[in-house]
Design brief:
Radius of gyration of chain A: 17 Å
Strand content of chain A: under 5%
Number of helices of chain A: 10
Oligomer: homodimer
CATH class of chain A: Mainly Alpha
Number of domains of chain A: 1
Helix content of chain A: over 70%
CATH architecture of chain A: Up-down Bundle
Distance between the termini of chain A: 17 Å
CATH superfamily of chain A: Ferritin, core subunit, four-helix bundle
Order of helices and strands of chain A: HHHHHHHHHH
Number of strands of chain A: 0
Shape of chain A: globular
Chain lengths: ~240, ~240
């Protein structure tokens, strides 16, 4: 079930196709491509999301007093900014205005970003790791629907995200005080719902039929699988 | 007098040496190398300064509503972050801990950053352009004192700073309202003093003798020359 995310990690050179030949006989095989949004929607959202991660990480850098932590966060911020800039360059190369392409997603994605902003910096760090983890997986999966442009997006999203440093900070936080573990586990669980809503809103049609829900479900199951692995890696129950 | 900054722009492949053969007969020739700080001080300050530019630009991105402006600022922020990360990598490569090397400059450089923070975003943008412009020139000049490591620092500092987008925003601001021109000219003038103090504090000994002041003066005249050109390019009187 969670195979394809696993394969992604194992064989980064391989382009993911949800309907690969091997999966043709699979009962849960997904007609995902027909739900894929127009390419502008896909690119605009993917680019704006990375800008959002960059902004959130930058705010964390500004509010962090620990210089070593600033360093770690700046690597993650730089990685998100690079992805954003590469996606913007791709949009521009296609002859479109990146600002115009991103603008429709500004309001919903800014709300999402505010909703995933925690009271404590550690919560917000977890938010970036969890939401970026799930949504990068989601856009990576979608990218298979867009030919060569999609393959380039996949390469951009697959680049090192430098979020290991955030994972280390969160893991250290949990180790320092056991109460943090339950607080962050709770926070992580809350994030899943919001993040899946963002993923679903990216698909067309905006209001999914029952038959579409069925197609989406296995994908979401896979996203949640990836999420669980990320939580467990930090010692948090998903 | 201001030749060497000009030459730097014209022939970026050439490593600047303040005491080049051509200048050997010059009455204002500078015994700059003996005032150069220890290499750790040099690298730590240069790295921390870039982190500061990145932080200031990130704050500007967060407070900017205009998406196209966010884009412009994010390019400048990314360029500062890249310089910071390359300097940090250089420090690490030399076997030192970047955090430890930067820490002594945190307090004075944070104060400097606060002092150059304007009430209006346009003032702060001008601050980054003006102070980073002067201090990159200054560290570029100093880099000639550190052999191969210095040459690598020079290459890092000489990379595209992507601040043209900031210049465009400031120029547009001035064009939109003539009062801005005098306000920003005033602000720009205020920045020079603070920036030169930071540059002077980087030299050794911390308290300069009268004879040292004489050596430093031509360098500062050159820094001010570069500053004037930057101001004039935006239509501001220096």
């Amino acid at each position: 079930m969670f195979d394809w995310f696993k394969r992604r990690r194992d064989a980064p050179g391989r382009t993911l196709r949800l309907r690969s030949r091997e999966e043709a006989g699979d009962a849960t095989r997904v007609d995902f491509e027909e739900l894929a949004p127009e390419i502008d929607t896909f690119l605009g959202q993917a680019a704006y999301l990375q800008l959002g991660y960059f902004e959130t990480l930058s705010e964390l850098i500004a509010s962090t007093l620990e210089l070593a932590e600033k360093e770690s966060l700046s690597r993650a911020a730089g990685a998100a900014l690079t992805k954003h800039q590469e996606l913007v360059a791709l949009i521009r190369e296609r002859g479109d205005d990146p600002t115009a392409i991103m603008l429709p997603f500004r309001e919903p994605l800014d709300s999402f970003r505010r909703a995933t902003h925690g009271v404590r910096p550690q919560e917000t760090m977890l938010s970036v790791h969890i939401t970026a983890g799930m949504l990068d997986d989601f856009y990576f999966a979608l990218s298979a629907s867009y030919g060569e442009t999609g393959r380039r997006v996949a390469r951009i999203l697959r680049a090192d995200d430098d979020r290991q440093a955030i994972v280390d900070i969160i893991t250290a936080t949990i180790a320092s005080d056991p109460e943090w573990a339950s607080l962050l586990a709770l926070w992580g669980r809350r994030l899943v719902g919001d993040t899946l809503l963002i993923a679903r809103a990216a698909l067309r049609p905006t209001r999914l039929e029952a038959s579409d829900e069925k197609k989406v479900e296995p994908v979401f199951t896979q996203l949640i699988g990836g999420h669980s692995r990320r939580m467990e890696a930090m010692g948090l129950s998903a």
